[in-house]
Amino acid sequence: MVQSKKIHYIAVQERSKTRKHELSTSDIIGKFSKEFKCEICGQIFSYKSRLKSHMYVHGNEKPLKCTICSEQFVYPSRLNTHMRTHTREKPYQCNLCLKQYAHKSHLNIRLHNGEKPHKCELYSKEFVHRSHLHRHILSHKGEKPFQCKLCTKRFSRKPQWRIHMQMHGTEKPYSCKICCRLFKTSLELDAHIRKYDGEKKPFQCGICFKEFTSKQALNRHTSMHKPD
């Protein structure tokens, strides 16, 4: 009988500890969750550090800077993702086609099942990614929101603007693994590598059908066909 009471006492004691732990956890969650609120937009954060990073959005301040092209960012995650455009790292691989991607958002099963959920209301054109729809809308609006701060040239797409900004700089972060030659942009490196791949020339003139290794070379050639 004494042993039975002892076992019962221990069981009650353990339940009491469990309840105390649950209460403590609940108190902690209640104390810290939804505590850090943005006074401008009302968004709520669990951590003060996240609220601090969020506030940069309202002040247009971007404290994180790319050491290669000087593009600035608010969040470290955005900077890390951006750096893959320079390092050419592609950590995300499709399980179906084994193709690798630099961004997780590009790794999408919709590419295989044909699903295109993002539709242009004006032209009924459909897109796999929301970013592609946004790019399309800018094109038929004629908007060019990305402006070069050095020569005031404007671009409708951010990748075009980024490549243009690299042309202003003196650094050449892209290196050929075969001959170690350096290039300012990834496009220049790709055109250079094609010379080692059997002189592939994927860019063709629509007038005389001459082929070129880079789009820049094609554009220079096409300008010769234009009347003065």
From TrEMBL:
Domain (C2H2-type): residue spans on this chain: 36-63, 64-91, 92-117, 118-145, 146-173, 174-201, 203-228
Cite the Gene3D superfamilies for this sequence.
Answer: Classic Zinc Finger
SMART domains attached here?
A: ZnF_C2H2 (SM00355)
Q: Name one Pfam family in it.
A: zf-C2H2
Q: Which GO terms describe its cellular component?
A: nucleus
Tell me, in one coarse class, where this protein mainly resides. nucleus
Protein name, entry field: Zinc finger protein 702 isoform X1
**What's the source species' lineage?**
Eukaryota, Metazoa, Ecdysozoa, Arthropoda, Hexapoda
Which gene codes for it? LOC114329093
